[in-house]
Amino acid sequence: METKNNKSETYYLAWMNPRDKKLRDAGVAFYNSEYGEYLLKVDEDQGKQYYLKPVNSLDGKTCFRMEMVLKRSNGTFLKRQSIGDGYSSIITNGNVHINYGSKYATLVLFLK
Question: What is the domain count for the chain?
Answer without folding.
Answer: 1
